[in-house]
């Protein structure tokens, strides 16, 4: 099952098809020992730029997943598909509208066994994803816990994703998400650039996502794999399961 594979990820890199990356940098990322490479982004995502990047990543053994943000860029050759559902979006398009439209058009062809929904909670109001989805991102700990609980218990989502894209997050809110889930996997992504941040994120989340750092300090990005792997996750409510 794909969601079981996703449940084994401790560290992943996220590559943006709309940003340039040299062959040398891509080589380092794909050989870094990360658990998977996710390809996806918010702006300027096309079939062509996604396909170009997928072909380059496919030279390596690392599993490669598409995080789908636009239906016209979906490529069947990925190992699997992560489908963001932005739980705190005030524009319902990003909660259900875009998904409904894609399923209306392509529903009979979708390989559901290779699809994993992600319940996003977008917490950086200045990020492109927050602006696009009109995310209600100024949330209390209690509100974040409630979104996480809702994702797991109402929507049965295998992944809850605390997204700070572009800025390192508030550890209290990552903990608040953890407090709401028992079985779902907690992803954290946003602004990781130092060993301390990588270690802290690894203590708080099940899966740590590193994106932007790849594009300005690939050495530091590669080192986050080791920092995350060396750090045990702190016990949460799921410790009892
Ligand atoms: C973005 O969560 C990822 O969707 C990673 O965030 O790009 O800030 O590392 P950064």
TrEMBL record:
Mg(2+) binds at residues 16, 42. InterPro entries: GGGP/HepGP_synthase_I, GGGP/HepGP_synthase_sf, GGGP_HepGP_synthase. Its cofactor is Mg(2+). Signal peptide: none annotated. Keywords: Lipid biosynthesis, Lipid metabolism, Magnesium, Metal-binding, Phospholipid biosynthesis, Phospholipid metabolism, Transferase. SUPFAM superfamilies: FMN-linked oxidoreductases (SSF51395). GO terms for molecular function: heptaprenylglyceryl phosphate synthase activity; magnesium ion binding. Sn-glycerol 1-phosphate binds at residues 14, 161-166, 191, 211-212. The keyword Magnesium applies. Pathway: Membrane lipid metabolism; glycerophospholipid metabolism. Pfam families: PcrB. It comes from the Bacteria. Prenyltransferase that catalyzes in vivo the transfer of the heptaprenyl moiety of heptaprenyl pyrophosphate (HepPP; 35 carbon atoms) to the C3 hydroxyl of sn-glycerol-1-phosphate (G1P), producing heptaprenylglyceryl phosphate (HepGP). This reaction is an ether-bond-formation step in the biosynthesis of archaea-type G1P-based membrane lipids found in Bacillales. Belongs to the GGGP/HepGP synthase family. Group I subfamily. PANTHER family: HEPTAPRENYLGLYCERYL PHOSPHATE SYNTHASE, PTHR40029. HAMAP family: GGGP_HepGP_synthase. This is Heptaprenylglyceryl phosphate synthase. It comes from Planifilum fulgidum.
